[in-house]
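About this split. The held-out portion is used to measure sequence recovery: a designer receives only the structure tokens and must propose an amino acid at every position. Recovery is the fraction of positions where the proposal matches the reference. Here is one held-out target exactly as it appears in the evaluation file.
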């Protein structure tokens, strides 16, 4: 401890009764402020821990990226410790009053946890248990600090009060590390709870031998494919799909336990992953009869570590499909096309004509898409859908392939396709007073961002891009964002980059393409970016605004 409190001799004399009462009041006020600061920091770091999937390595990466705010709190605590030491020596109330004020400023002045979260903390059972364990660790630390203060300095010594407060301040700084300890302590219990739920889900699936399970995975396109396929199949079957982003082991487990009923005939199961064997973990629960692999590309490279790991993980779905099952593969994806499988493969593609399901006479506009497709039995059908973007035609082709082998009549597929809607935040068209918004704000990736820019270019009007860029791309992140900037310069009239540091590579790519500096804006947050969009004058043509990606709260 860098504090003059430690310079006070052991067993320092107790203060007078009146001064002792005042000191005790100051001591209690300071501890209340510390406890409130601890609780606030705990809520904030718990929120980030949840967004980082309770993974210590991802939480540490987040902490390193935001080390500036932590250093500011360290300086505040150190200065507060010095003030407490001065209080112990001089017995003047002025230093401790300043210390209390400094404590407020350190833990409450610039508090990111007070901002409105895009994805708020969900108070699950696991979160509540972590709160309890971390709180007990804090109370244990404070009890030891008070006990040590009494033993070293005496029961009514200002030095003892100051010492206890200093330890409490350090415990506030250690909140993220106490959270790691709590997570480790709770791990055996959490694993036992999770295994019980997982085994229940396995039992439910096993009790339904007539259920057809269709797994869907891919680096991008899997969520849209899930929605489209469910719509096509629902014309002939009772279908359940995993909701929202419930694509992990625990998300799928929750879906099976709470929503899968004996009346369901098909379960469309999205499977996401950020690490090797996570797809296998989902497959072990649901035992897929068929699998759809939409694409394989650079996404979540920070956690996967390499493209080889991404490829191996996505192919875990193909490995889980039984010998008499089918695997549906996007053959427009070069990485996916290069992999050889020992399963019955059904191929689909938009660019690749030598596939089993190939859309022809494709017409894509801002009103929607239309195309023809031939079936293996020699028949064909004409599809019209309100979906925009060529890559949605590709995803729909894969869904048509699956529906065909599930014996859905062509006329039913055609009817269902007419009523398809864009998946929220995935090239979702929104008309507003601001202009026509193409909302593609969910988890951008290189291929998806390129497709979104091409879709933007289809519209007649003033093309405006608003983006913070792409994340979780590991060592390739700078280069891929720079390429994105070059691509954006070809399709956009105005570009608004959200994030002063995050968007540096995009700005570099935009400028290298000769884009006008007067039409490039770099802002600190989305609200400021939208203000820039509103300020753009466009009396003769509508504004077409592409919202490409929206970084979560832990970025």
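Reference sequence for scoring:
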């Amino acid at each position: 401890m860098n504090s003059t409190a430690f310079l006070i001799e052991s067993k320092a004399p107790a203060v007078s009764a009146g001064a002792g009462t005042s000191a005790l009041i100051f001591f209690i006020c300071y501890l209340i402020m510390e406890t409130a600061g601890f609780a606030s920091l705990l809520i904030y770091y718990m929120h980030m821990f949840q967004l980082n999937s309770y993974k210590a390595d991802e939480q540490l990466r987040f902490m390193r990226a935001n080390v500036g705010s932590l250093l500011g709190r360290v300086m505040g605590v150190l200065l507060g410790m010095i003030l407490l030491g001065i209080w112990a020596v001089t017995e003047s109330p002025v230093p401790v009053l300043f210390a209390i004020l400094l404590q407020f400023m350190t833990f409450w002045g610039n508090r990111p946890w007070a901002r409105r979260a895009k994805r708020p903390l969900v108070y699950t059972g696991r979160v509540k248990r972590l709160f309890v364990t971390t709180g007990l660790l804090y109370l244990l630390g404070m009890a030891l600090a008070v006990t040590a203060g009494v033993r070293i300095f005496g029961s009514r010594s200002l030095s003892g009060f100051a010492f206890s407060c200093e330890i409490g301040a350090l415990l506030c700084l250690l909140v993220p590390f106490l959270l790691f300890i709590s997570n480790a302590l709770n791990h055996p219990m959490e694993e036992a709870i999770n295994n019980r739920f997982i085994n229940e889900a396995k039992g439910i699936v096993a009790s339904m031998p007539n259920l057809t399970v269709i797994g869907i995975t891919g680096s991008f396109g899997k969520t849209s494919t899930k929605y489209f396929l469910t719509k096509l199949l629902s014309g002939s079957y009772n279908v359940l799909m995993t909701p929202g982003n419930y694509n992990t082991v625990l998300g799928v487990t929750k879906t099976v336990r709470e929503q899968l009923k004996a009346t369901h005939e098909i379960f469309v199961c999205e499977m996401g992953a950020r690490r090797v064997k996570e797809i296998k973990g989902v497959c072990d629960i649901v035992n897929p009869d068929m699998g759809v692999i939409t694409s394989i590309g650079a996404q979540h490279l920070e956690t996967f570590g390499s493209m080889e790991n991404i490829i191996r993980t996505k192919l875990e779905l193909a490995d889980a499909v039984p010998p008499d099952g089918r695997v549906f593969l996007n053959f427009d994806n070069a990485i996916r096309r290069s992999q050889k499988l020992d399963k019955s493969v059904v191929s689909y593609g938009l660019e690749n004509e030598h596939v089993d399901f190939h859309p022809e006479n494709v017409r894509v506009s801002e009103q929607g898409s239309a195309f023809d497709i031939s079936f293996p039995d020699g028949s064909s059908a004409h599809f019209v859908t309100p979906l925009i973007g060529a890559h949605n035609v590709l995803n729909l082709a894969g869904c048509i392939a699956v529906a065909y082998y599930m014996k859905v009549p062509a006329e039913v597929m055609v009817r269902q396709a007419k009523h398809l809607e864009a998946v929220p935040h995935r090239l979702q068209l929104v008309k507003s007073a601001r202009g026509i918004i193409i909302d593609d704000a969910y988890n951008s990736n290189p291929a998806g961002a390129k497709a979104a820019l091409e879709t933007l270019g289809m519209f007649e009007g003033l093309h405006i891009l608003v983006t913070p860029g792409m994340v979780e791309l590991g060592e390739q992140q700078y280069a891929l964002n720079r390429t994105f900037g070059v691509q954006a310069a070809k399709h956009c009239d105005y570009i608004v980059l959200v994030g002063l540091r995050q968007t540096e590579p995009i700005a570099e790519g935009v400028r290298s393409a000769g884009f006008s500096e007067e039409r490039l804006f770099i802002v600190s947050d989305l609200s400021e970016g939208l203000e820039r969009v509103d300020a753009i004058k466009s009396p003769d043509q509508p504004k077409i605004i592409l919202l490409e990606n929206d970084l979560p709260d832990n970025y």
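Annotator remark: Residues 4-188 form one domain.
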